[in-house]
Design a protein that fits this description.
The structure is a homodimer.
Chain A (H helix, E strand, L loop, with lengths): L1 H28 L6 H7 L14 H21 L7 H18 L1 H9 L6 H4 L4 H19 L8 H20 L8 H19 L5
Chain A binds a DNA duplex through loops.
Chain lengths: 205, 205
DNA sequence: TTCAAATATTAAACAATGTTCAATATATAA
DNA sequence: TTATATATTGAACATTGTTTAATATTTGAA
């Protein structure tokens, strides 16, 4: 039956329109700007309509959240052809911080936000995050097997490194770096990355 | 004039009562439970009354936030008589993570929360935070002067170390560690702390 | 084409939030 | 005792997300 197919297609198109609009609002003015009513007004529907396509606001936010992880993973994949795991890890650290600083709203949603979308971590919906985490973990694993990272296990090292970059990013994004003048933050991040690189990883090989 | 003194005293007492009640609600059920209306009900006043004593909700939250920093600093001070800066730094890392894990709500407010209290970072109200940061920075400085931390400057090393512990804490608190089973988190944190300690700091002395 | 049934959409309402403000109650000083 | 100053209130406002009964539209068969 063709009508049913069309119906389903239209339903999907409407879902896409809602998500697209939500992303638009998100990019324009951050997550605070993404309200059911704002989305509804922009697509010229009533607020209630949206609930025919999404269970709740969390589901919409989750779509934006997923898009963020797509962006990050695409960046990670750009490191695919770097053979040296040490170099790869170094570049991944820089890339991660660059992504965080240039996409603060996305980063916030992906790794910091709470009340905004409790849904995010509920189900097994962590796949996209898992994928990025594995990419890091695999590289760390290569470093260990290569003898560049020593005296630790894969998971401890991976969590330490992730924690390190996430810590810097989230302190900056959530405005907890009042102790240093705005201008020197970027420089300090650079110095910290170098400090970590110099000491955690050896180029002995 | 005695009445004026009493008036002022009563005003202060009322402020204290409001803060005390807010903290009570906070400890009972987290920051979500701290609403102007809930505080008002608990002290048997109308919601509007609270605005005779505080400009807005942010000022009340800020008081709780400050209490958190008092708690943390008290813990740091307990390390005062450790002479060896390396040992001191190691213990400070453990202590910081312990504080974060045992006072998740406080930690959230102090280092992660956003919308809840924009006021927090507005003014020069960062003093209590600065104090704790300086305590860490001074210890790192001692390590550098002692030759235990090398090839870096004080600020890069301090930010790196703070970022590292904050990163782990905030990832856990905001539920971004779905990739590892609940039970192994504590163990991984331990391993990560050890990993960092082993490599960033040398006991050469 | 027509019309009952299914589906989509809406407007209004609900509950909860922080905040404001005119009206009221209370306390103070003369 | 009374006028003034202060404290407190209750209702209202604006803003959320969400639900739901009522309406509008579309569909498929007669």
């Amino acid at each position: 039956m063709s009508t049913e197919d069309r119906k389903e297609r239209e339903k999907l198109e409407m879902r896409q329109l809602i998500i697209k609009t939500a992303m638009q609002l998100f990019k324009e003015d951050g997550i605070e700007n993404v309200s059911i009513r704002a989305i509804a007004e922009k697509i010229e529907y009533s607020p209630g309509s949206i609930y025919s396509y999404f269970k709740d606001k969390g589901e919409i936010i989750h779509a934006i959240h997923t898009e963020g992880f797509e962006k990050l993973y695409a960046l990670q994949k750009s490191l695919d052809d770097i053979k040296d795991p040490v170099e790869k890890l170094r570049r991944m650290g820089e890339l991660y911080m660059k992504f965080a600083m240039e996409n603060k709203d996305y980063y916030d949603l992906m790794f910091i936000a709470k009340g905004v979308a409790d849904k995010i971590c509920e189900k097994q919906e962590w796949d996209v995050g898992q994928r990025s985490y594995n990419y890091l973990r695999d590289t760390v694993k290569d470093c260990i097997e290569n003898g560049n990272i020593i005296n630790t296990d894969v998971d401890s090292a991976t969590f330490a490194i992730w924690g390190f970059v996430h810590g810097m990013a989230s302190l900056i994004i959530r405005g907890r770096c009042a102790m240093m003048p705005e201008e020197v933050i970027a420089q300090t991040v650079k110095g910290s990355l170098q400090f970590i690189n110099t000491h955690l990883i050896s180029n002995s090989n």
